[in-house]
Amino acid sequence: MTTVVSSHATVLCCVRCHATWPLTDIIYVCGSCGGNLQIKYDYAAIQRVWHREELTRNPDNTMWRYGPLYPVSSRIESPPIGWTPLFRADRLGAALGLNSLFIKDDGRNPSASFKDRASAIAMTRAREIGRRLVTGASTGNAGSSTAVLAAAMGMQARIFIPKATPRAKVAQLLAFGADVLAVEGTYDNAFDLCLAATEKFGWYNRNTGYNPFTREGKKSVSFEICEQMNWNVPDLVVVPVGDGNIISGVWKGFEEFHRICFIDRLPRLLAVQAEKSDAVLRALEGDGKIEPVSGETVADSISVSIPRDGDAAVQAVRASEGFGIRVGDEEILAAIIEVARGAGVFVEPAAAASFAGLKKAAAQGMIDPAWTVVMLATGNGLKDVASVMKVAGAPRSVSPDPAKLGE
Questions:
Q1: Which of 112, 194, 247, 344 makes an SS bond possible with 239, Cβ 3.0 to 4.6 Å?
Q2: pLDDT at 24
Q3: Is the peptide bond before 7 cis (omega within 30 degrees of 0)?
Q4: What fold is seen in the domain 86-111+214-391?
Q5: With a cut of 50, which residues of the chain have pLDDT below it?
């Protein structure tokens, strides 16, 4: 395996007030305004030592092939994370009147979720600064990915979850040895309790939309899309949005490859949110300020009242000249079946939201049929079987007598 050689990372920069902070300290948010932080790099130095041809020859088919653009100097050798399949979904695209639709299936990651990318960088950072206990709040996926990697790395995971977290996700957490604390309340309640515990006990906090290292892992999906499409940047990337950390990471990845001249243009972003968990879209349509919403949706992974990375998400969509769309729970559940039967991919509700939003946007004439579109499938359907069964139907009961099969 190729050794990660960093670190061209230079400073932490606030996405809101642009104040800068040293990477040497354990800082989660801006000390001046409380805004989220973003890691900056010496891009000129990266260009001098890393070239696209070298990357193309690298046999390491994991997210660690992009080491020069990570803020860590080591890696997790196993389990392998990233380099998930990107493939054409012609039947699904044709049903929407699109000429070129691709699915990036991140349900193939070790914990069956996109969130493994974020955990990989955040937990590597924790190990490098000598922390052995990592905590976080999660509706399931971020916690599962933390638990998987903690088990592999010999670390301890302490995860706060809302009591309504799907049982399959709770099972993952427990199976991998996490200390699971079920909070009587919503994800936002679990998040706030986790922050209070971090401050009181000094645990290393991996929270999405709070720890700036999580975005650094999530951006790897954009690097992979560029390579897997032979450096032909898609016109549109469809992203399900909850706290905003995935879409801000997706944009950062494309932007960084553009800055070091690996790609020559940038895509638009389509942000898809559930109707009652649409704080980012409300901010996009208004003055850009994030205000709380109810957060209620069947898609637990994007069920958020206050998006913790909302500022960066709004900035990403606007910078990409992209747009957003809302989908209802019925549309999300229906999309699980449409993606399964139209493309052979089993997705959980949050991932299905991507297709539901794409379908709605196409029907409203918001998408040029000639565009090349990439849809992120962020989690596997086995994560939330109860939701799937609401729309999948039931098996037929038959006699064990073969003679009666034709009846």
A1: 247
A2: 78
A3: yes
A4: Rossmann fold (3.40.50)
A5: 1-5
